[in-house]
Write a structure and sequence with these properties.
The complex is a heterodimer of chains A (about 110) and B (about 110).
Chain A: E1 2-5, E2 9-13, E3 18-26, E4 31-37, E5 44-49, E6 53-57, E7 60-65, E8 70-75, E9 84-91, E10 100-102, E11 106-111
Parallel strand pairs in A: 2-11
Antiparallel strand pairs in A: 1-3, 3-8, 4-5, 4-9, 6-7, 7-8, 9-10, 9-11
Chain B: E1 4-7, E2 10-13, E3 19-25, E4 31-37, E5 43-51, E6 54-57, E7 64-70, E8 73-78, E9 87-94, E10 104-105, E11 109-113
Parallel strand pairs in B: 2-11
Antiparallel strand pairs in B: 1-3, 3-8, 4-5, 4-9, 5-6, 7-8, 9-10, 9-11
Classes of the chains: A mainly beta (about 110), B mainly beta (about 110).
Chain lengths: ~110, ~110
Amino acid sequence: GQSLEQPSEVTAVEGAIVQINCTYQTSGFYGLSWYQQHDGGAPTFLSYNGLDGLEETGRFSSFLSRSDSYGYLLLQELQMKDSASYFCAAGGPSGSARQLTFGSGTQLTVLP
Amino acid sequence: DADVTQTPRNRITKTGKRIMLECSQTKGHDRMYWYRQDPGLGLRLIYYSFDVKDINKGEISDGYSVSRQAQAKFSLSLESAIPNQTALYFCATSDRTSPSYEQYFGPGTRLTVT
């Protein structure tokens, strides 16, 4: 099975940079994804790291270190609309069974 | 039009009742999933299906059943609803050829069991 840990809450001010960490314990780990969810709405995909290193998509970046079983989501130039819950999700087991196991989520509050 | 739709969006039912939640998708994806979300617990996988003939239990399948009526339709049933099944339920789809595990979620069904 898989388990993921991430902080429950993070607060930052508009324009700042915030990093949301995720550590995982897995069998058959295949990669780390990040999803955003606003106020109980549909989760939406942000990024995926299948390999170690940094992936950048606009203001958002995500990082993975398989040797440390660790990843993070970096949000730059924070905007009020970034206030949401962010979930890391581990893909696996490998092969055809492309399941996701989600962390409990980090509630990000962006202050003016 | 939304790619993944769920009906109903909200439902209040009584303990012991049978209830069905429906999910339809127009994305042409072969894989479909049902999750439940409880406050502070993230999303937990109930069932998943890789095609019409392939149904698999997820982490928390007890008390639930599913039916994949067509590639585009995946229904979740609570045979005898109980209050601790009160939760937000999401359907999701994915494409087996996607390298990123990206899943597309429906808007959710908020279920309350009294």
